[in-house]
Amino acid sequence: MEIFCHISVERLWKSGSRSNCCRICPGMNRRASGVHGSYNVAVPSVVRDFKNEDFDVLWRMDQECFPSGISYSKQQLKSYIRHRGSFTLVATKGSDGEIQGFIIGHCATSGHIITIDVNPRTRRSGVGSVLLRAAEDRIRDAGCPYVGLETAVDNKTALSFYKRHGYSVIRTWPRYYPNGVDALVLRKELA
After folding, report:
1. 20-37 confidence digits (pLDDT tens)
2. Dihedral over alpha carbons 119, 123, 127, 129 (to 10 degrees)
3. What is the DSSP letter of 121?
4. Domains plus CATH for the chain?
5. If 0-12 CB within 10 Å is exposed, 13-18 middle and 19+ buried, where does residue 38 land?
6. Is residue 54 a contact partner of residue 98, using CB atoms and an 8 Å limit?
7. Which of 1, 48, 53, 188 has the fewest CB within 10 Å, making it most exposed?
8. CB–CB of 146/153 below 8 Å?
9. Is the dihedral of CA 9, 43, 137, 87 positive or negative?
C-alpha cells in the first residue's frame, strides 16, 4: 500500500485554535494507478527550503494526490505556506532536480505537520520519511517539545508510517473529516 498523508488546519485556523491543529486526510491508502515499487528503495533526495517558483508544482502535486474537496485550493496552500510560524521543505532529486515531495510544518508552543505530499512516481522510496525527519529537526530546533498531527481512523497505512516514526495515538477527534470519519490525534516527543 502507498504511504501518503495530507493534513489540513483550515478549520482550526479559522476557529483560532492552535493546539493539535493538523489532520491527515482519509482514503489515502489506495495505490496510485501505474505506481509500483518497494518500500524505502534508495532515492537520492535533497531537502531544501521552499522557493516561490516551486508553488505551481507543489499545488499541482497536491491536486494529483488528493481528491476534490480534500486537495487544497491555491489560496489555501498559499496561506499555509505563508502562515506565521510555518515552514515548507521540498525534496528534490539531486540539488536541482525534479520535486519529489514537500512538507509544510508549523512551530508555535508545539510543532504541527500540516501536510506531507509525495509525487506518485516517487512514493514508497523513503521521500516521506526524509521529509518528516527534516521537519521534525526544524521543529525541534525551534524549541518545540513535541509535534502533533491527525490521521483518519481508517488510514492504516498512515498510522503504520507514523508509528514507525515514533508517533503515538493520544486521543480520537470525532467526525473530524467532511465525510464524518473520526481522526486519531498523534503526537511525538522531540527530546
Report:
1. 333 333 333 322 323 333
2. 130
3. G
4. 10-29+39-189 (3.40.630.30)
5. exposed
6. no
7. 53
8. no
9. negative
